[in-house]
Design goal:
This protein is an alpha/beta fold and about 230 residues long. About 50% of the residues lie in helices and about 10% in strands. The protein has seven helices and five strands; from the N terminus they run H-H-H-E-H-E-H-E-E-E-H-H. Strands 1-3-2-4-5 form a five-stranded mixed sheet, covered by helices on one side. Helix 5 links the parallel strand 2 and strand 3. Helix 5 crosses helix 6. The two termini are about 20 Å apart. About 5% of the residues have low confidence.
Amino acid sequence: PGPKGVINDWRKFKLESEDRDSIPPSKKEILRQMSSPHNRNNKDLKERFSRKMSIQEYELIHRDKEDENCLRKYRKQCMQDMHQKLSFGPRYGFVYELETGEQFLETIGKEQKITTIVVHIYEDGIKGCDALNSSFTCLAAEYPMVKFCKIKASNTGARDRFSSEVLPTLLVYKGGELISNFISVTEQFAEEFFSGDVESFLNEYGLLPEREIHALDQTNMEEDTE
């Protein structure tokens, strides 16, 4: 059937699915008129019910839109609840600036064993350090279960170990143990690199968990296209 036929079928379905005993006679008649296209050609009936029919149509359309919006909100809430239940441990979402070597050691030693900590040791003026810090900001938002940190080499208390020749350096810890370290890490990237390049690099070594944001993005994309 064409669009008008589909609309009329929908109206008829709404009428037949209602509890007839609970519908006032006037509403029954209005719905009957709405579900019977040929009656629209009857001038007397059209004039008699034109105002009520337009109001009723508006109410049905408005109610349908409310139902659709409610369904979308429900789906989104269910998705968020599911990811919250499946995400164990603390959540972060931004880059932590460590100011001292003591703070660095405390962060590594006191974090939960299930938490992956990625530390960028940098220095101002070193090529690639600014771009890596910008990439960390993006990755911290996309992987809130990972703790991304940065600290200046001069603040580590071990500046001789982190000379400009080895910067930027990435250190990855879990359960208080160093599980990966990459010196002069930007040599692994192109001249210009972004968070996606850093993400791919870390994923090659299995250092990042699965992104939670993908499922939520997919839900939002489906809603936008409906």
